[in-house]
Amino acid sequence: MVSGIFKSADRFATTTWRQPSSSEISSPPSELCAKFLTTNKDGEREALLLTLDKPVIIGRNPAHGYVIPDLVVSSIHCKLYAVQVHPGGFVISCQDLSTNGTLLNGHRIRKASVILVDGDTIEIPSSQKFQCLFSFKTPREKAHIFEPTPPIETAHKGETIGKYTVTSHCLGSGSFATVHLAFDRVNHRQVACKTIKTKKGHEVDKVYKEVGILTGLNHPNINRVFDLEQDGAFLHIFLQLCTGGDLFSYIISHVKTSYRLCESEAKYIMFQILTGVKYLHDKKISHRDLDLKPENILLCNPGPYPHIQIADFGLARPKAYQKTMNVCGTVSYLPPEGILAMDNHRLGYVGMPSDCWSAGVMLYIMLAGYHPFDFSRGSSCKSWWPSAEWESASASEKGEGVVKKRIIDGHVDFRDRIWTEEVSQEARELVTMLLVYDYLERATVYGALRSLWIVRDEDALRDAYRKRISTEPF
Questions:
Q1: Known binder of ligand: residue 194?
Q2: Which end of the chain has the smaller Cβ count within 10 Å, N or C?
Q3: Which CATH architecture has domain 158-240?
Q4: What is the pLDDT of residues 64-90, one digit of tens each?
Q5: CATH 1.10.510.10 for domain 247-470
């Protein structure tokens, strides 16, 4: 039986399915990300150094981190983390674990996690203050190529949009949107602001329709959509802020530790993914946007055995039990029927079974440490790390074609020693149930939650799950 579902002593073993690029691991674990300057009770100046591989704990207990012996300080008052996020970046977060809260720039936070920007001040009420200083500053991007080289950003300006103040602190960016840190002035909380530039009127109507669907969702494993504001050609979607990064970045940041998750943590994460997907499917909604994948699984707070949320619902659709002709998604996570429909526009596929296939791919990755279809064969099945030639091929039509063929062939390889010696038979059976070629025979999310692998530890999973979400604001 897999035990220790929620023990912090269980080291987070990690998984990856491709060699991280140099930009994705821009900061080695020992690199300084930020320092926190403070003056202690004796009037001495001190600096707390924060790196990616080691959080800093502030509290009264001498067994943990930085000690403040004041009675107003909790045993473990707060934790400071540097979290690897989108390629080449990190965020600094502060998680309050105290009884009387922690002040961020004078605003009290309780039992919550917030993101810090360069120059922010955190304070133990009636005790010490700490100023956060990033270890390096990033140049502001040019607005156009003829603009003079811009100066280093030293302050994060804010722009008022409705009841929100949107800062210049970027949390992530993609082909169609950027995400910035924002502050909800009415509810006194940090949020994420996803900004999309639209070109046509029907695009605005489409986004409003999609956001209307998403604002009605309310579940601990679904990233909340709070509001939508339009500012000229820009649409600003305000979302629940998660401070632990995404699952893929979390995996990459621990790549030197191991190659896969320990089974108990994979089960805890998978249980939450299935619970969130079940909520969506109950409402006849499928995810579909780039498909379920680690990049779309957010960690509410840093640390092992995380509370996760499914995010990025740009292509979520109602009536997901109906066939769609609009094929979308990352090839590596599309089911066979999606691959076939991609190459034959007269075909379609159903969103709900597609979500279950994608969940099966993620479970395979978490347990084995490599992707079931998108990997380099090399000389043996253990060639999980793609060569430079394969990385180049994967980005090409030829490489994508190889992955498509493997998915359509429908053969999932369980011959590796990991599957025969380290992963339980029940876990393998669930992967097999989800990665069935025929979507009519594939396990539904309801069947997956009734699998022996989940049911065997269901009480422990639900207990850990309830305890975690009860201590976090929602």
A1: yes
A2: N
A3: 2-Layer Sandwich (3.30)
A4: 899 999 999 999 999 999 998 765 678
A5: yes
**Axis-axis angle for helices 351-368, 425-434 (nearest 10):** 150
- For 87-119, write each residue's pLDDT tens digit: 567 899 999 999 999 999 999 999 999 999 999
- The reply to whether 247-470 shares the fold of 32-134 is no
Q: Is the pLDDT of residue 216 over 80?
A: yes
Residue with tokens 């979520």: 316
Angle between helical axes of 397-409 and 336-343 (0-180°, round to 10) = 130
**Choosing from 96, 118, 120, 289, which is the catalytic residue?**
289
Q: Which residue has the tokens 């969940």?
A: 359
Mark whether 289 is an active-site residue.
yes
Of 53, 78, 80, 54, give the one whose Cα is nearest residue 68: 78
pTM of the model: 0.83
* Class of the domain covering 32-134: mainly beta
Task: Say which residue the tokens 């970046």 belong to.
Answer: 89
For residue 227, give both structure tokens: 């509001």
